[in-house]
Design a protein that fits this description.
The chain is globular. By secondary structure, it is an alpha/beta fold. It is built from nine helices and 14 strands.
Amino acid sequence: MGSLVGAIKNVLPASLRNLISRASYPYRHGSRFFTPYVIQKDMEGQQFHFYVGDRTGRKWYDLPCINNPVWLEMRFLRDHMVEEGDVILECGGHHGCSTILLSRWVGSTGRVVSYEPFRPNFSILERNVGLNDLQNVVPRLEAVGATDGTITFDESTSAVTSVGKGVTVKVTRLDDQAHLKPTFLKIDVEGYEMQVLEGAQAILATRPKIAMELHAELLSQFGASVDRILALIDVRDYNIWVQHRDDHKPEPFEIGTPIVSRVHLFFMPKRNGSLRTR
């Protein structure tokens, strides 16, 4: 049935497909007619409670999926990048699963500021922060971009939209938090990566560690490109790794290698030397 619905939607005009997606979101992915529940998770060496607040949460964090209980992206961060005392700005907290792991790894001397622009996701994020008593986490109901202001957010795709309807959300710049002296930027913003980096130029000048989910296939709709994004980071000062698929381990990345689809990029300042192994 799902494939038939998908085939029918594909022949419809884009505007109508978007309308259908937004109208069906609360029933297919959201919390309409859904009873939230709490599970016990054991992920990458950490045990914690997790509030499953909607159907997307059930699919991503409870039902069997590629990142459960092994999450190779986060394992790479744990083993080679995150250190106790790190101050992490997390752009795209979603329901808080990665937030919980980062909070545990930075320890009581560290801090995680987690940005999530979509209010239903933010409510679940807050619930999971409280459920696990994460004293070093600050959730923020905001999107992150190049300038302060507002943007339109499409709840059906969990992403900023450049066309069509959605909800208006507040936008802030990462540089507004430069006084926290962040040491790590984690960016997962569904194609809005360039705008996030444009609003973090003061922080980038300090050469923080960076973990970025790069959606090369979505960049053009925001006037961005892989080359323009890499130009915002002084790549000469970094050793870089790439994870091509969620079930593959990261490998060294050479500047100039084409990126045409979604990948994870990991930037380690050369001043930190070779990869740390925990």
